[in-house]
Design brief:
326 residues, alpha+beta, Structural Genomics Hypothetical 15.5 Kd Protein In mrcA-pckA Intergenic Region, Chain A, Pseudouridine synthase, 9-stranded mixed sheet, 4-stranded antiparallel sheet, 7 helices, globular
Length: 326
């Protein structure tokens, strides 16, 4: 599509001009296209929705063909921890994307759930996210709950929004982090927003949304020199921001082991590990994070439900190797 900025539109915001001139595209769709680099001016992509255009500018919008709106069911094995008529709790493996998105149109948890649950999944989240009330990163393992009807979806959404401040909701993670914190437990209270330069990352920013993570040291691991090189932390969320634990631990100087996005500068720390630990970390190939604890109230009965998922094999191997180095 091509839009030529009229005289009375000069100095207006890019997103507002496009919204006024292209009524068939929603504001959210236009913003997504801008952020994805699909909007260009003078041959260069303009990724800032607030960019001020000038009269006479020719804006080119590259709108890709619409993908099928409704994902299909796929026969993907699920590790089901609990299931009834209202909810299903799964232990998500590494490598499984939660819902279809660009680059991951198939092979997702949503595709697996559609095949397993059929039409019973809640539709509140939209056809591309049926029943999804929270998510885990592709390479984070552990417990997830999915709503199977709208009543459950509404209840779970409210519980996740509250995150245990007035209710029973608890979400706990096991995190292998670089370095040894200088105290036994602590809280990171730092707002999170999109990274100002790397759109695929999040960052602690004062303009961000409230984010609170509580952590406690469960184990410490020594390196070749006998000093603390890593720690196993238990983390609990008081909010649910994207990449929250990964961002917060990196913010306090203890990024997750294996996290190539938020801890790339810590790669050389692997040299302080024993050979067995180095091999276990190299084989891991992902951030060392596992959602081991989920506590919530049943959306229909109000019963308090509690689940725990042990560390997966790859993290058990890492833990064993780190212990062996002591």
């Amino acid at each position: 599509m091509e839009v030529v900025v009229a005289g009375d539109e000069g100095s207006a915001r890019l997103d507002r001009v496009l919204a006024a001139r292209l009524p068939d595209l929603s504001r959210s769709r236009l913003k997504a296209l801008i952020l994805a680099g699909a909007v260009s001016l003078k041959g260069a992509a303009v990724r800032d929705p607030a960019y001020h255009v000038a009269a006479g500018d020719t804006i080119i919008i590259d709108v890709p063909e619409a993908a099928p709106a409704e994902p299909k069911g796929e026969d993907i094995a699920l590790d089901i921890v609990f299931e009834d008529d209202d909810i299903i709790v799964i232990n998500k493996p590494k490598g499984l994307v939660v819902h279809p998105a660009a680059g991951h149109e198939t092979g997702t948890l949503v595709n697996a759930l559609i095949a397993h649950c059929g039409s019973s999944l809640s539709g509140i989240g939209g056809v591309r996210r049926p029943g999804i009330v929270h998510r885990l990163d592709k390479d984070t393992t552990g417990l997830m709950v999915v709503a199977k009807n709208d009543l459950a979806h509404q209840s779970l959404t409210a519980q996740f929004a509250d995150h245990g401040r007035t209710g029973a909701m608890r979400r706990g993670y096991m995190a292998f982090a670089w370095g040894l914190p200088n105290r036994q437990r602590g809280t990171v209270d730092a707002p999170i927003d999109r990274h100002p330069h790397a759109r695929e990352k999040m960052a602690v920013r004062q303009t961000g949304r409230e984010a609170v993570t509580h952590w406690e040291i469960l184990q410490s691991f020594a390196g070749r020199d006998g000093k603390g090189v890593a720690a196993l932390l238990a983390c609990e969320l008081e909010t649910g921001r994207t990449h929250q634990i990964r961002v917060h631990l990196a913010h306090i100087g203890h990024p997750l082991m294996g996290d190539a996005v938020y801890g790339p500068h810590f790669k050389t720390k692997a040299n302080q590990l024993g050979l067995q630990s180095q091999a276990a970390l190299a084989a891991l190939g992902r951030q060392a994070l596992h959602a081991y604890l989920l506590v919530l109230e049943h959306p229909r009965t109000g019963e308090l439900l509690h689940w725990e998922a042990p560390l997966p094999e790859d993290l058990l191997l890492l833990e064993g190797a780190l212990k062996a180095a002591l």
